[in-house]
Amino acid sequence: MLERTGYSRSRVYARIAAGLFPRPIALGARAAAWPEHDIEAILAALIRAATDDEFAPWS
């Protein structure tokens, strides 16, 4: 997510806390990742300059 969006870790987690990004899936004790379809949906919304209200499905 960080590499694909260009956002910092703190910005991604702030958007998760605000319900604007989905939560990552735990892969282990110290590893997590996002499903590719979630990342693609976020990138598509960012490209079309979506408002924060359009990210609401993850809240």
Distance between the termini: 18 Å
Strand content: 5-15%
Shape: globular
Strand elements, count: 2
Segments where pLDDT lies below 50 for 5+ residues? none
Mean pLDDT: 85
Count, helices: 3
Largest sheet: 2 strands, antiparallel
Q: What spatial order of strands do you see in the largest sheet?
A: 1-2
Radius of gyration: 11 Å
The helix/strand order is HHEEH
Structural class: mainly alpha
Helix content: 40-55%
Give a short synopsis of this structure.
With 59 residues, the chain is mainly alpha-helical. Helices cover 42% and strands 7% of the residues.
Summary keywords:
59 residues, mainly alpha, two-stranded antiparallel ribbon, 2 strands, 7% strand, globular
Textual characterization of the structure:
- With 59 residues, the chain is mainly α.
- The chain is built from three helices and two strands.
- It has a two-stranded antiparallel sheet with strand order 1-2.
- The longest helix is centred in the last third of the chain and has 12 residues.
- The radius of gyration is 11 Å and the shape is globular.
- The model has no long low-confidence stretch (mean pLDDT 85).
Secondary-structure blueprint of this entry?
Layout lengths: L1 H4 L3 H9 L7 E2 L5 E2 L2 H12 L12
Antiparallel strand pairs: 1-2
